[in-house]
Every structure is written in structure tokens, then in C-alpha cells.
Amino acid sequence: MKKDNDIVFTVAAVLVGLMALGTSFGAGYFVGQSNLPDVEVPLSNGQVTEIQIDDEDPVLGDEDAPVTIVEFSDYECPYCARHYSQSYDNIKNEYVDQGLVKVVFKDLPLEAIHPNAVGAAVIAECAYDQGGDEAYFEVHNRIFDNMVAKTGPLSKTNIFDWIADVESLDMEELRSCSDNNDTIARVEKDLMQATELGINGTPAIFVNGVFFNGAYPYSEIKAAIDAELAK
Amino acid sequence: MLNWLSNKEYRLGLAFVSLVIFNITVLILWRTPASTGNSCVVGYNLSMGNVFFALVISLLLAINVIGVYEIFKNEKIQNDVSLTSLGGVGFLMWILSTVCFACYLPIVSILGFNFTLNFLNVFAGWAQFLGIALALVGVLLVDRQIRYGCWNGKCKI
């Protein structure tokens, strides 16, 4: 009987030991990648960096505008919605529509904390496939308008409801596209680029390469744009 | 102090319980949306400091859990009955008459409150200090009751 107990105890001890080992590795792994995967040196606020813009990146505004704003964003991130509500319209009205600024949008869905952000990014990319920049930003604006208004949680069903009346989009095609792996790969490409740049959060805003780590008040973004225009 | 932990089964139980609590805490630290400088960041809460805190608090909470079990076991020995012979109401009556609530309540309250604080530590440093302080109080209470007795209706606190 005692021998049986000893065997049970030994097995239990080995299992707990394995659990401890797994925990150590697990905790170490998570701490090691406490931000995005492979971000070894996070980008500092105000740091200037060069950002590659691809042909398939959605662009709002004149291609030849003197100032380029690149935004890495996550549709489910409340700070991205805050940036949208406090700066997006102002930038568009005051600079983009005047041909002074162009905004390039890149996806950075933080899937670990925002599980629906990838789906939203993919739908927006699918809209881009159908109608280019205009369709992309129509969907982009509809999603963020609803996130700001808190009309409902971010989900594919809700997004399709929010964009149901966009006439330029074929909804059936959009639905089938949103399950397409090629489109997901494009979102992942943006994510890889963000990782390589050392971005560790969203929104990440670059005004002619000058990094703004988060949703800054419009006055600060405006000051940065004006400074770039004055150069 | 804590001599009752010399039992090797208890030590194993202690390791198991503390690992479970630690794992849950780390998972929460990893998955909780965090913000810094008005941005969403994955795993921002999973700092070395927070992980170290999680390790300490998990150990203290596990001592409390094992201690409560030890007290319960001792009480049960004093009031042994065949549990299989009890129905639902019978079991409830047995628990109510066996457990000395005057002893248990402070410990169980501290334990419960501490579990909550353990998860709050994700958000606030003050919760970490309060959590460790309360967990230490819990350990002292549980140890005292095991050593000086809370059995057989004595209810010494």
C-alpha cells in the first residue's frame, strides 16, 4: 500500500515538475515578446524613420502631397478610434483636401487582445480590391464611426451591416473575399513591417517619418504637419 | 512556524496550487489590453516586476489554500462521518456543524479578496502591496489556527 502511495506521489511530483518547467518557459517566452513578436528595440516617440509604402497600400489624398502621414492602426483599438475621432476629419479637411498631405493606412491588428481586428482589416482590404482607395476609406470610416459611436462590438456581421448601403461594393464578393487567405496575407505583411520598424502599439502615426506613439491631440499632429510643410 | 508544510504531499500540493495561480495570473497579464501613452499595446503588463509579484503572491495564496485544507482536515477528523451516507441537505448540515465559521471566515475572506487583488495587480501597484500584506496576514492566521487549534468548537482566533 505504501509502495503504491510512493508511486502515485512520484508521478504527481514529476507532473508538477513538468508543469513548473513549462511555466518557466511559458513565462519567459511571453516576457520575451511582451510587445509584438520580434520587436527587439521598440521605436521611440519622436524618432524619425523611413517607411516603405507599397502600391497596394490605401492612400487618402494626392499622391504627390509634400507631407505623408502613415498610420498603423487596429480597428478594435479604442485609441485608434480616439485618433480617428479627434484628428482624422481635421487632417482631411485642413490638409488632405488641400493637396498638402496624403494619408497612407496600414493594418496592425493586435490579435492577442483584439481578436476581431484581423477580420475587420481583411474586409477593408477586400473593399480596396473592389473599389480602390475610395472604397477602402468608405469602409474604414464606417467602421471607425461605429466604433466611436459604440453602436456595437466589432464583428464581421456588424461590419457587413454597417457597410450594407455602400453602393459601390458587391457584398457577396466581399463576403467570399473576406475568407480568402491571400487578403489575410496582405494584412500580415503590414504587421510584419510594423514589427520590423519596432512599433509596439497602435495607433502608430508617422508624419513624414516622425513617429507618434499613440493617439495624440490633433494640435500636436497639426504642429508636426506644419513643421514639415515649413521645411 | 509553517511546520505543517513539512508534509511532502502538502509541499507538492503547494507547488501545484501556486503554479496554477501563477499561470492564470501570467495569462491575464498577457491577455489584458493595456495602454501606455494613449496606445494599445500587447502584453505591456507582462513586465518582469509583475511576473515576480505574481510568483510571490501565488506562493502565499497557495500556502493559504493548503492551510485551509489542513484546518478542514483536522476538523473533519474531529467530526468524522461517512460522507457517502449524507444527502445534499445532510451534507450542508454537516458542513455547518463541522466548520467553525469564526475561524474560517477571516481566512476565506482574505483568500477571496486576495484572489481579486491578484488580478487587480494588472492595473495598480497599490493592489500588489495590499495583496502581499493581506496574503501574509492570511498565512499568519492560518498557521496560528493550525498550531493553536480551531478544532472541536474551540474557535481560538
Q: What is the CA-atom radius of gyration of chain B, in angstroms?
A: 18 Å
* Annotation field: number of helices of chain A: 7
| Spatial arrangement of strands, main beta sheet of chain A | 1-3-2-4-5
Low-confidence stretches of chain B: none
What integer value in Å does the Rg of chain A equal?
22 Å
Q: Provide the residue-averaged pLDDT of chain A.
A: 86
Task: Tell me the helix content of chain B.
Answer: over 70%
The average pLDDT score of chain B comes to 73
Largest sheet of chain A: 5 strands, mixed
Report the major sheet of chain B.
2 strands, antiparallel
Helix content of chain A: 40-55%
| Helix/strand order of chain B | HEEHHHH
**Overall geometry of chain B:** elongated
Write a structural description.
Chain A is 55% helix and 10% strand. The longest helix of chain A has 33 residues, at 117-149. Chain A has 231 residues and is of the alpha+beta class. Chain B has five helices and two strands, in the order αββαααα. Chain B has helices at 8-31, 48-78, 88-98, 101-120, 125-148; strands at residues 34-36, 39-41. In chain B, strands 1-2 form a two-stranded antiparallel ribbon. The relative contact order of chain B is 0.15.
Summarize this, please?
The complex is a heterodimer of chains A (about 230) and B (about 160). Chain A has about 230 residues and is α+β, with helices and mostly antiparallel strands. Chain A contains seven helices and five strands; from the N terminus they run αββαβααααββα.
Give the SSE map.
The complex is a heterodimer of chains A (231) and B (157).
Chain A: H1 2-32, E1 59-60, E2 67-73, H2 78-96, E3 101-107, H3 117-149, H4 156-162, H5 171-177, H6 181-197, E4 204-207, E5 210-213, H7 218-230
Chain B: H1 8-31, E1 34-36, E2 39-41, H2 48-78, H3 88-98, H4 101-120, H5 125-148
Antiparallel strand pairs in B: 1-2
Helix pairs in contact in B: 1-2, 2-4, 2-5, 4-5
Essential attributes:
heterodimer; A: 231 residues; alpha+beta; five-stranded mixed sheet; 7 helices; 5 strands; 10% strand; globular; B: 157 residues; mainly alpha; two-stranded antiparallel sheet; 5 helices; 4% strand; elongated
